[in-house]
């Protein structure tokens, strides 16, 4: 009986093993399937991050500033890839009221700002969100009154606190020489009230270009003001535009022809750097608009980019497009373009129609980034990122890796007289 029972037990165990084989195979197949699904999902995520955040790591930890201004008017375009390229985003709006306070002028501006801030804070941890306060006539009236200056400083700090905003840019275009003292007093008071809140609020000032009559920064006590701001955005642009008959780049790096030899970014930055010495606090502008002159024929001596537009009825016919999409819809093509080596700028000239167009492209922007590196400047500010709304997203094509790799030092690389 013992001999007969042993085989029976063995057969029973073998039968159980056979029954368990399909279950084990099913579990193994399920496990392999889950692993494959996870692998595919990780591959998709990697592809998305690699393509969507092409230069994110470079700019998130960029050692120089890439400041993007976002206008409250015009295009509402604000793609996530815009944020990828920036260290600061600045909402530009005419906040200032004559009574010495700041507020949104309409619901649309409030909506745009909240949307901008929420996206930046939610998805781009570390992004600095600021506001820019403009207003020409209001500034002058407020600065003339000590009580209004104090009221304005309180209003700004309260706004930053209530709206969880990182800082403010003061964009008074432009104070007169008679405003110099009062403007400086206001900047000092605002800085002191920021410090009392025990928060690291950012304070910047946008200052006028040098060399243009009527734009000279006479209304800024620059040597004193630089001590109370985190940085200055230099308005190194508007050297040429269709308000005048002479064509030219909005912000040529170098080279002008008589009587505008000093109408360049380099001349303006030479002036500021030699005067202030703190090069790491100075940012140059990258204008994103497109400027068109019509009835252009004559080439002026010295460069292909400088030409004469014939007047019609005593006026220049031209347009400044603050949206690249609008320009494209009007029939403007930004490629192929010509390159002017002397000014380091791009342009297009249609001799048949007499249309002349200047604008920034990948090459001209990268020349400006190289200039910031060479001159130990603090960074660039883009005016404005929502103008980059055309079929070709210009800011997406710029590689900031070399630009962002090193921190600026206060070493003057200009010839100071």
TrEMBL record:
Residues 64-405 form the GH18 domain. It comes from the Eukaryota. SMART domains: Glyco_18. One of its GO terms (biological process) is carbohydrate metabolic process. This is GH18 domain-containing protein. One of its GO terms (molecular function) is chitin binding. The chain crosses the membrane at residues 28-49. It comes from Caenorhabditis remanei (Caenorhabditis vulgaris). Keywords: Membrane, Transmembrane, Transmembrane helix. PROSITE patterns: GH18_2 (PS51910).
